[in-house]
Amino acid sequence: FPGDSLLLRAGDIWLKESLFPVGSGRPENPIVISSYGKGARPHIKPGHDAIYGIRIVNDAGYKIKGLEVSDCYGGIVVWEENTYNLLEGEHCFRILLLRNVNLIVVMWELK
After folding, report:
1. How far is it, in rounded angstroms, from Cα 99 to Cα 111?
2. Residue 61 and residue 30: Cα distance in Å, rounded?
3. Nearest in space to 35 (alpha carbons), one of 60, 5, 55
C-alpha cells in the first residue's frame, strides 16, 4: 500500500532468496524498500541460477535505497505487462527511485 515500508536488517545476507514485492505506491507516498540498524547494507544474493534479485511487475511507486543485490542475471527488474496495447488517453504510472544501491554484475562463461 502507498507509504508502506519493507526494511531489511543491516548486515544480513539473503542467500538463495529473491524479493518479489506486490502493490503500488504513489509519487508522493512511495513504497520504501530499505534497511534498518547499523552495519553493512542488507545483501540480496539469489545465486547464479536466479534471474532476479528484486522483481516488480505491474506495480509502481517504489523507492529502493541502501541495499546490495548481486549474483543474479537481472538485479532489479521492473516491468509493466501489456503496455504496448494502451489506448488513447490511457497511461502507465511508473516511478522507481534507487538511492545508495549496489548492483554487482557478474558475468558467467558458458561451457
Report:
1. 36
2. 5
3. 5
